[in-house]
Write a structure and sequence with these properties.
The complex is a heterodimer of chains A (35) and B (132). In chain A, 57% of the residues lie in helices and 29% in strands. With 35 residues, chain A is an alpha+beta fold. With 132 residues, chain B is of the alpha+beta class. In chain B, the strands form two sheets. In chain B, strands 5-4-3-6-7 form a five-stranded antiparallel beta sheet. Chain B has a two-stranded antiparallel sheet with strand order 1-2. In chain B, a hairpin with a 4-residue loop joins strand 1 (11-17) and strand 2 (22-27). Chain B is globular and about 40 Å long. The chains are: A alpha+beta (35), B alpha+beta (132). Chain A binds chain B through residues 14-15, 18-19, 21-35, and chain B through 1, 16, 18, 20-27, 30-33, 35, 38-39, 42, 46-59, 71-74, 96-98, 100.
Chain lengths: 35, 132
């Protein structure tokens, strides 16, 4: 039973983790009219 | 403008270079920042955004119409403007591969004096930095 739960957990982590690592790292803007 | 942008959710630091007309925004660790909101905040502070570039890490996904997008959060993705680099990423669509790309999210339309912050933000990939 525990093995099944662990396998399911490992599967969920492998599916979710790449998206969890995804993110916006940097934004740069060029602007006009700034004083 | 620096204070105005700094108040937006997900923003950690804002660096403004008056000489170059450049604004650099570093998101917080969680990376939960909304570029469209930043564009609007820039517009609201009385400054015109001419261009917005973004470096982001995410998965390439295909939407229901078959168009490619970069998914940076479970509920946020940016449609990719087709170019040679986006074509090269098509094979990674809906796989577990995570890519880091730099691209242009917004460019003020030529001939327009004022930016339109309400336009949908599509990502034109300029550089693929990493595939994992």
């Amino acid at each position: 039973m525990n093995t099944k739960k662990l396998a399911l957990l490992a599967l969920l982590v492998s599916i979710v983790s790449p998206v969890a690592q995804a993110q916006i790292k940097h934004i740069e803007m060029r602007v006009e009219g700034m004083t | 403008m620096k204070q105005h942008l700094g108040r937006q959710s997900g923003v950690q630091t804002v660096e403004v270079s008056l000489r170059d007309g450049k604004v650099e925004v570093t998101p917080k660790e969680d990376g939960q920042i909304d570029p469209a909101q930043l564009l609007k905040a820039t517009y609201d502070s009385g400054v015109t955004a001419a261009e917005m570039d973004m470096t982001a890490r995410g998965k390439i996904v295909k939407d229901s119409s078959g168009s490619l997008a970069l998914q940076v959060e479970p509920n946020r993705s940016f449609a990719l403007s087709p170019n040679e680099l986006s074509k090269g990423l098509e094979v990674l669509a809906d796989t577990q591969t995570v890519v880091t790309v730099r691209g242009q999210l917004y460019k003020k339309p030529a001939g327009k004096k004022k930016a339109d912050p309400s336009v949908p933000l599509n990502l034109l990939i300029l550089e693929v930095q990493k595939k994992e």
